[in-house]
Amino acid sequence: MPRGRRIAVGLSATAAIFAATASGCESPAADPAAYRRLVARVKYLPDVEAWAAREAREGAVVQFLLHLDAPQRRAGRCYWTVEVRAGDRLWRRYLVAAEGGAAPLRVRAD
């Protein structure tokens, strides 16, 4: 990996951890399984599965993007943003509680 790329990746990871700490939310960065659990809580919602299947039949690549740089605190819980995309189009954005138990919150996709 070129040196400049390593620095950019390192700074991004550091910024995500700092943002999580500043918000009082513990970053799941140290646990790859935590990433998968957060994304899976959105990926397996019935309406998301149906939409993803339609998009895949039409040849689109469906992506689930977990944002670690801006956690939010709501009602004492930490939420992370998961975007659902097909190609370069944003379909929906969800807030997912790291602690589990709460259903993902759909937020407006601007």
List the helices and strands and how they pair.
Elements (H helix, E strand, L loop, with lengths): L2 H21 L8 H12 L2 H12 L4 E13 L2 E10 L2 E9 L7 E3 L3
Antiparallel strand pairs: 1-2, 2-3, 3-4
Structure description:
It is elongated, with a radius of gyration of 15 Å. It has a 4-stranded antiparallel β-sheet. The protein has 3 helices and 4 strands; from the N terminus they run αααββββ. The protein is of the alpha+beta class and 110 residues long. The protein has helices spanning 3-23, 32-43, 46-57, and strands at residues 62-74, 77-86, 89-97, 105-107.
Provide a compact summary of the structure:
The protein is 41% helix and 32% strand. It has 110 residues and is of the alpha+beta class.
Summarize model confidence as the mean pLDDT. 78
Radius of gyration: 15 Å
Biggest β-sheet: count, sense, barrel? 4 strands, antiparallel
Total of helices: 3
Q: How many strand segments?
A: 4
- The string of secondary-structure elements, in order, is HHHEEEE
Based on secondary structure, the structural category is alpha+beta
- End-to-end CA span: 34 Å
Widest sheet, order of strands: 1-2-3-4
Q: Unreliable stretches, pLDDT < 50, 5 or more residues? A: 1-22
Strand proportion, as a percent range, falls in 25-35%
Categorize the overall geometry: elongated
- Percent helix: 40-55%
Properties at a glance:
41% helix; four-stranded antiparallel β-sheet; elongated; alpha+beta
